Amino acid sequence: xxxxxxxxxxxxxxxxxxxxxxxxxxxxxxxxxxxxxxxxxxxxxxxxxxxxxxxxxxxxxxxxxxxxxxxxxxxxxxxxxxxxxxxxxxxxxxxxxxxxxxxxxxxxxxxxxxxxxxxxxxxxxxxxxxxxxxxxxxxxxxxxxxxxxxxxxxxxxxxxxxxxxxxxxxxxxxxxxxxxxxxxxxxxxxxxxxxxxxxxxxxxxxxxxxxxxxxxxxxxxxxxxxxxxxxxxxxxxxxxxxxxxxxxxxxxxxxxxxxxxxxxxxxxxxxxxxxxxxxxxxxxxxxxxxxxxxxxxxxxxxxxxxxxxxxxxxxxxxxxxxxxxxxxxxxxxxxxxxxxxxxxxxxxxxxxxxxxxxxxxxxxxx
Length: 366
Ligand SMILES: NC(=O)c1ccc[n+]([C@@H]2O[C@H](COP(=O)([O-])OP(=O)(O)OC[C@H]3O[C@@H](n4cnc5c(N)ncnc54)[C@H](O)[C@@H]3O)[C@@H](O)[C@H]2O)c1
Ligand SMILES: O=C(O)C(=O)C[C@@H](O)[C@H](O)[C@H](O)COP(=O)(O)O
Ligand SMILES: [Zn+2]
What we know:
The chain is α/β, with parallel strands linked by helices.
């Protein structure tokens, strides 16, 4: 088993990665949790596949389990869904000494984490991520979130779990589109990291290759993210690097209204951001075609008509890296050499407009 230790100011916990782990999850959980009530939150796609195996083990280990199945999909990251979950916890008399387990993809993890962080001002939480995206990214680092009609993840908290159990065997039931969506976040981290991690992704040409190399891709992604989170848990500075591709990605994802997965939007956002900073002279890098090739090699989208939408800039106003009239852009000066640069929002708007019209902006990014 690969164990990555996470040390934070308020708490320490482990990320455990191993094939077959979900068959022994209750004994793993019993190492960190005393007997208690557990809300086992999952979704309508994951429940028929894995709920019974996990639930029966927990019951056998002495836990009292309330399974909660939410509708699969991004729309479940909502205040309405949260209200339903709070009511279920209250109806089952959950107390502060009980716990919540997220068994699912990033949607289940973000929602269950938010519920755990707010119900009775916080009850214990464990992540069992089942999608590639959740295994390499969303289960790690403690960001929880709900969406608002205005934009992605606009309600949420930083709330760390007591344990993260990552079993790559879950990925065998994931469909190809979901697998690729998770891979976009791996490409993001590999590009930030550079080195042999980046070399590995440049050799990947298919979903089959992603699955074959999943375990090492997960280990490297989680290790990179955990180091960043330990250095800057609440995203005061370097954690913003993990948001590479998300400034434009989140805007496009919201405008797509459910037709793009988060990872697909990130794929588009990585290329759009790199293109923007290279075209405008903010960096001398020429990485747009390099990153595009790696993403397109497996069939991920890297362009969208939504990049030309009149509503794109309004969406960018909801980016959490905005401060006053400025926004922090995240991009690469070279593979493995990321940069965070504050620019005025008006300058960003001018450059987005010039991309749309083909005219030179009056205001340059430099
Ligand atoms: N908190 C963070 O740091 C963070 C990081 C990245 C993304 N996110 C969030 O994560 C979400 C995206 O996560 P996602 O791509 O996992 O989406 P998701 O949770 O919707 O899962 C994708 C689909 O795969 C299904 N699924 C999950 N595991 C499966 C399995 N093993 N077998 C079969 N089907 C399975 C789900 O039911 C769903 O239909 C977005 O809301 C995004 O904003 C959060
Ligand atoms: O963990 C982080 O920090 C990230 O930014 C990881 C992102 O992949 C993830 O999508 C995150 O939820 C985005 O957060 P937000 O603060 O931009 O809502
Ligand atoms: Zn993301």
